[in-house]
Amino acid sequence: MTVAHFATDCPYDARIRPGALDDLTTHLGGATKVAIFFPEVLGGAAARASDVVRAAGAEPTMIELPEGEQAKTPVVLADCWGRLADAGLTRTDLVIGIGGGATTDLAGFVAATWLRGIRWISVPTTVLAMVDAGIGGKTGADLPQGKNLIGAFWEPSVVLEDTDLLVGLPARQVRSGLAEVIKHGFIADERTLVLVSGDPAQAQDVTSGRLAELIARSVHVKARVVSSDLRESTSVGDDVGREQLNYGHTLGHAIEAAEHFTRPHGECVALGMVFAAELAHRVIGLDEATVARHRRVLGSVGLPTSYHGVAWPALHELMMRDKKTRGSVLRFVGLRAQGEPTIIVDPDPQALRGAWQALTATTD
After folding, report:
1. How far apart are CA 53 and CA 59, in angstroms?
2. pTM of the model
3. Which of 95, 93, 96 is nearest to 31 (CA)?
4. Per-residue pLDDT, 192
5. Is residue 215 left, alpha or beta, with left meaning phi > 0 and alpha meaning psi from -120 to 50?
6. Residue from 220, 242, 282, 294 carrying the catalytic annotation
7. Of 249, 281, 282, 295, which is the active-site residue?
């Protein structure tokens, strides 16, 4: 088992091993009622969790969610609150989210807002959720105007990463998760980039030791960053706190919203990273070799490195609504060099346009 410790205000561990779902019984903490959130495709895993809860003497309430970002709407959120009210969950009870990042985002936000906050357990079941969305204590839901515009910082009591649940994950979802793995490589962990480039096929194999190592390395990167800055409050100049985890996300989230959340998150982040690297090259002198490395590493696992979809004016407008924007000033996470993130504030429109043209000038 690999254990990564998150030393936040309410400390917790991410526990990574095959069969970790069975560890639920040791983390119920005396709850008598447990709401289990899951998408239909994970009905089998949810049933296993329900059996564990019943065996521990608690009463499960099963709440099936729509797939993906369709779970993170105000309508679904209100329905979930109603289900908790009907089930009679109290402040000593528990929420469990089993699924990808959308499921854990919503389950965590329901927990954060029910009775002003009750405990919850995250059980991420995709590569993306295991390395990013399901582990860092960010919870939330979407609005038509943008992704994660409502939310809360609410740490889980534990994260259980059962790598057996990755078996059968569609290849496109594995690649999507690898975008966040590669992001962690560029901002903090050279070894990750070496592992991906060394054998891209093994990096995409959910049964391989290489992917298991990549997941563990990413979780440890995120634990270090989140432990020092849970609420994304310490970025000043080149001293970048949790905001560095948003590398590639400013444009990435705009593409997601513009395409109505039909494109996987990791593909959008991959495009956002290429854009951010091109922007950093123009604004703060990131070397061309590192810019090219973005395209090479991302492309090696089948992620997109050029974009020919929604036009720039619409994406620029969406970026202005992004939660990382301050007032009317755009902010991007950029790199001065490999492993040296910084904040690019209010970049020159000409530099933005040049980065955009570089992203759209080539084909994958």
Report:
1. 7
2. 0.92
3. 93
4. 98
5. alpha
6. 242
7. 249
d(C-alpha 279, C-alpha 181), whole Å:
21
Is residue 235 over pLDDT 70? no
Residue 253 annotated as catalytic:
yes
Q: Distance between CA atoms of 100 and 124, rounded to whole angstroms?
A: 6
**Active-site position among 220, 222, 294, 295:** 222
**Dihedral of the alpha carbons of 129, 133, 136, 140, in degrees to the nearest 10:** -140
The span from the CA of 243 to the CA of 250, in Å, is: 11
Q: Active-site residue 249, yes or no?
A: yes
- Report, as an integer, the average pLDDT of 214-223: 97
Catalytic residue status for 148: no
> Do 2-166 and 171-360 come out as alike in CATH topology?
no
Distance (Å, rounded) from C-alpha 178 to C-alpha 134?
Answer: 15
Catalytic residue check, 295: no
Q: Tokens 């690019």 identify what position?
A: 344
Token pair 């009679």 is at which residue? 88
- Residue 239 is predicted with a pLDDT of 78
Question: What is the CATH T-level fold of the domain 2-166, as seen in this structure?
Answer: Rossmann fold (3.40.50)
265 is catalytic: yes
232: annotated active-site residue: yes
Could you say which DSSP state residue 38 is in?
Answer: E
User: Looking at 175, 246, 256, 295, which residue is catalytic?
Assistant: 246
Mean pLDDT of 66-76: 93
CATH for 171-360, among 3.90.870.30, 1.10.8.60, 1.20.1090.10, 1.10.10.10? 1.20.1090.10
Listed in sequence order, the DSSP H helices in the chain are: 43-55, 74-87, 101-113, 127-128, 171-188, 190-198, 200-203, 209-228, 249-258, 265-283, 288-300, 312-320, 349-360
pLDDT digits (tens, 9 = 90+) for 153-196: 999 999 999 999 999 999 999 999 999 999 999 999 999 999 99
Lookup: tokens for 124? 């991420």
Largest Cα span, the chain: 63
Question: 239: which strand partners?
Answer: 236
Residue 267 appears among annotated catalytic residues: no
